[in-house]
């Protein structure tokens, strides 16, 4: 009985050695995850930089969900509105955002799919208008700081 137990313990120990990833495997896995996350951040930055609030859109803003598909080179294959903001102007702006962001950065090699599908929310924040009055107090304070800095740099420019 003692011998069977030690054989079983040895076998289980051997199995544990082969199933536990090595340090190098764990680092490679982390590296792959990091490159995919970095690429996704690039997509987000690119989309955010191309988002434009249409001048004739309602001031309330809204969130549109857009689904888009990329090929292996980062080329936009298709795009579609999945969830509306309730404003056709903002919905069209959301689709235009995705289109103007193309072509996207090439996906990392770790992503093996030929077509990559994403659904993203594009948030259009409510517009604030000062047309009828003065800017908010915090905006005026910020402008005063900028003016003071400019005056100190330019010395009266």
Description:
The protein has a three-stranded antiparallel sheet, with helices on one face. Helix 2 packs across helix 3 (88-101). It has one domain: Fusion Protein Consisting Of Minor Coat Protein, Glycine Rich Linker, Tola, And A His Tag, Chain: A, Domain 2, CATH 3.30.1150. It is built from four helices and three strands, in the order H-H-E-E-H-E-H. It is of the alpha+beta class. The chain is 50% helix and 18% strand. Strand 1 and strand 2 form a beta hairpin.
Task: Identify the notable features of this structure and list them briefly.
single chain, about 160 residues, alpha+beta, Fusion Protein Consisting Of Minor Coat Protein, Glycine Rich Linker, Tola, And A His Tag, Chain: A, Domain 2, three-stranded antiparallel beta sheet, 3 strands, flat
Q: State the order of secondary-structure elements, H for helix, E for strand.
A: HHEEHEH
Strand arrangement, major sheet: 2-1-3
Fraction of helical residues: 40-55%
How much strand content do the residues show?
15-25%
CATH architecture: 2-Layer Sandwich
- Mean of all residue-level pLDDT scores: 78
Radius of gyration: 27 Å
Question: What's the helix and strand layout?
Answer:
Layout lengths: L1 H18 L3 H28 L11 E10 L4 E8 L4 H14 L13 E10 L12 H18 L3
Antiparallel strand pairs: 1-2, 1-3
Helix pairs in contact: 2-3
Compact overview of the structure:
The protein has 157 residues and is of the alpha+beta class. It is built from four helices and three strands, in the order H-H-E-E-H-E-H. It has a single domain, classed as Fusion Protein Consisting Of Minor Coat Protein, Glycine Rich Linker, Tola, And A His Tag, Chain: A, Domain 2 (2-Layer Sandwich), CATH 3.30.1150.
